[in-house]
Design a protein that fits this description.
The complex is a heterodimer of chains A (301) and B (184). Chain A is mostly helical and 301 residues long. Chain A has 11 helices and 4 strands; from the N terminus they run αααβαβββααααααα. Classes of the chains: A mainly alpha (301), B mainly alpha (184).
Chain lengths: 301, 184
């Protein structure tokens, strides 16, 4: 179990490094067109960073408001509060704020910039359908997201995606504006630079590749949260049973949207997991690994 | 020129020492904190027992010996020595006595219907769960401290400043035996 956790953390680090390298590549490609790769990358990164970290700072309030979550009263939701308190003792985390969402689809999410400013929300559907050990498994998964600072990591990923999108967009516009010529300091008017073609293709594909990388990071963190949850409860069958119930349930979580899809424990949107001809391409963009895969991994612990 | 290099190396070594020492101090503080967390939960359980005894006493035919066992176990837990082993055996006695009490309560349907009794039973079950989690956390922190003390560079700092490994909390053999119940 500890090996799985360290393996997942290593893979996340590799993905993030790959992401940054990709950003630098895009910066270089954009630099071919806007004349200064370093400045371009820096400005795009700063701008995207400001926007993303603004939302990261207030991530708990934003996510909860968007999903229409209400605070869970300790008297009414005694079992929920007791389970979270027990898990906080087991992991040494401070107790997060607990919210409930009126929605019959079973789902849950965690948010907040660090363990001291965190919140967990569960749907009423989850509370109705899960028994005690299953609910505990789901809550442990959400607490693991908080403990592993996954909100910070996905904010970093979003920042990089934003920077890449800005750079590629800017470069393509400028290139269009300049009539398709490559502008560099010490400009030579022959456009026979083969690297420019590579740069151009890279710029067009950049946002798509960035989205794929972001989804890959998200999937890695989901697996890490599953394994961390089992370490917290020392009882994998609880979470396995909860995931199996989630697999059997096909209700769409109405309180979710494309913007919040990555935070929930299971993909809330319909149309995912369809077996069409493009399903392998679609699966590159999945925010969560497929449930069968998650269950199979947990069974091996 | 070589003087500067020597100075730089010494500075780096000192910095490493400070960082390693601080990390050991932090780990040790976590272990102490985790230990007192167990204490908090156990205290809560011991505080619930007098209420339970009062509720059960009203059912006069209830086994006097079982009640006495619970009261005695509670007393010895309150006065036990602070070492992990002594605490562990005292708490195992309390757990055992409580299990006897609840097992015997199956034979008293009026007692089982009593709201007070049910609420206390629920709270005690909840507390047992929290005690288990607190012990799990303590063991996790002890693991981290012991591993840090045994890892190579930290090993040197640990030996120099006298950081010792801590013992794990282990449930004694009494906890593994099923409760002995006789309805005679």
């Amino acid at each position: 179990m500890h090996d799985l956790i360290s393996a997942n953390k290593r893979r996340t680090a590799l993905l993030v490094v790959g992401f940054i390298v990709f950003l630098l590549l895009v910066g270089w490609a954009a630099g071919l067109y806007i004349g200064s790769p370093v400045w371009g990358t820096a400005v795009a990164l700063v701008f995207s960073g400001l926007v993303s970290f603004g939302s990261y700072w207030k991530s708990d309030a934003i996510a909860l408001r968007v999903s229409r979550a209400v605070p869970a009263d300790p008297a009414t939701y005694q079992r929920l509060h007791n389970l979270v308190e027990g898990l906080c003792i087991a992991s040494g985390l401070p107790k997060p704020a607990i919210y409930v969402i009126e929605d019959e689809a079973p789902n849950a999410f965690a948010t907040g910039r660090n363990p001291r400013h965190a919140a967990i929300a569960v749907t009423s559907g989850l509370l109705d359908q899960m028994n005690r050990v299953e609910l505990e498994g789901v809550l442990a998964h959400e607490l693991s997201h908080i403990r592993n600072y996954d909100i910070l990591i996905s904010t970093m990923a979003v920042t990089l995606v934003g920077a890449i999108a800005l750079l590629s967009d800017l470069a393509i516009r400028l290139m269009w504006w300049n009539g398709g010529r490559v502008r560099r300091s010490g400009d030579r008017s022959d456009s026979g630079n083969p690297l420019a073609i590579v740069g151009f293709i890279l710029l067009i594909l950049a946002p798509v590749i960035a989205a794929i990388l972001q989804a890959a990071v998200g999937r890695r963190r989901e697996t890490l949260a599953d394994v961390s949850a089992c370490q917290m409860t020392r009882y994998p069958p609880g979470l396995i049973s909860a995931l199996e119930k989630l697999k059997a349930d096909t209700t769409v979580t109405h309180a979710a949207s494309t913007a919040t899809a990555h935070m929930w424990i299971e993909q809330p949107l319909s149309g995912v997991g369809d077996a069409g001809r493009l399903s392998r391409l679609h699966s590159l963009f999945n925010t969560h690994p497929p449930l069968e895969e998650r269950i199979a991994l947990l069974r091996e612990i | 020129m070589t003087a500067w290099i020597v100075v730089a190396v010494i500075v780096v070594l000192l910095l490493a020492f400070v960082l390693l020492y601080n990390s050991l101090v932090r780990r040790r503080a976590q272990v102490d904190n985790a230990w007192s967390q167990i204490d908090v939960q156990l205290r809560r359980r011991l505080d619930l027992i007098p209420n339970l005894v009062e509720t059960v006493k009203g059912y006069a035919q209830f086994e006097r010996s079982t009640l006495d066992a619970v009261i005695t176990a509670r007393q010895s837990a309150l006065t036990a020595a602070p070492s992990p082993q002594a605490q562990a055996s005292a708490d195992n006695m309390v757990s055992g006595a409580l299990r006897q009490l609840f097992a015997l309560s199956e034979a008293y349907p009026d007692l089982k219907a009593n709201q007070n009794f049910l609420a206390l039973q629920e709270q005690l079950a909840e507390t047992e769960s929290r005690v288990a989690y607190a012990r799990q956390f303590y063991n996790d922190e002890v693991l981290r401290l012991n591993t840090a003390i045994q890892h190579f560079p930290t090993l040197i700092v640990a030996r120099l400043f006298g950081f010792t490994e801590r013992e794990y909390f282990e449930a004694g053999p009494e906890a593994q035996a099923p409760p002995k119940v006789s309805f005679s």
